[in-house]
């Protein structure tokens, strides 16, 4: 697995804000224009641009302007599809093992150890 | 055409439970218990499921998390040491395409009145991450996870 440790702090910082998380979540579905990203957010366009700059600075997203439209996409280098996928598997297993903990708590009195 | 690729990765998950190794092991060996915390824990509609917990035995499951995508899980139990260790090899398919083949080792270690569980998965992760639906779901979950992590860090600070 590639080591992304140095950029992780910046990524965490960038994701510490709910609006920026919304933007990233939207970009999970595919590239989007700035106005598309701004649409569900209750804020001015300059504020949206600020958030996008921060996200771009963290390496999570990149944007390019074609004509009058600026399109943003997730930066595959920051978060490769493979890492995402493998991480999803880990998260799924973590959830299951948490459920095992809940199950063990719930059945604690049911039987002799 | 799917571009063929293999990524090898290992991940380790640790958990400590307020239960004896025997109770934790039983949550794996007993099919009713396993059904409760493992098979149905995701609330995925279960299309098929069989469980044969013994060395050489198989676990077979077919699920559809969103009613569209089909996930197939084929597991073989290769090593079982009661209350101590379970080793499986398992393959996963999404919509008929093999996406991973892994060895999963689950170790139980007694720690006073608790049990320390270590789950180690060593996998060959195949072309699966090229499927957009999977990528999107994986991406979402990763960010949810990061958000949770941040909230935890925030609470600790």
Describe the fold and architecture.
Chain A is built from five helices and three strands. With 113 residues, chain A is an alpha+beta fold. Chain A folds into two domains: 74 residues, Winged helix-like DNA-binding domain superfamily/Winged helix DNA-binding domain (Arc Repressor Mutant, subunit A, Orthogonal Bundle), CATH 1.10.10.10; 34 residues. A three-stranded antiparallel sheet of chain A has the order 1-3-2. Chain B has a seven-stranded antiparallel sheet, covered by helices on one side. Chain B has three helices and seven strands.
Highlighted features:
heterodimer; A: alpha+beta; Arc Repressor Mutant, subunit A; 2 domains; three-stranded antiparallel sheet; elongated; disordered N terminus; B: 157 residues; alpha+beta; Alpha-D-Glucose-1,6-Bisphosphate, Chain A, domain 4; seven-stranded antiparallel sheet; 3 helices; 7 strands
Layout of helices and strands:
The complex is a heterodimer of chains A (113) and B (157).
Chain A: H1 5-14, H2 18-28, E1 32-33, H3 34-38, H4 45-57, E2 61-66, E3 69-74, H5 81-106
Antiparallel strand pairs in A: 1-3, 2-3
Chain B: E1 7-17, H1 21-29, H2 31-39, E2 46-51, E3 58-63, E4 71-81, E5 85-94, E6 97-111, E7 114-125, H3 132-156
Antiparallel strand pairs in B: 1-7, 2-3, 3-4, 4-5, 5-6, 6-7
Helix pairs in contact in B: 1-2
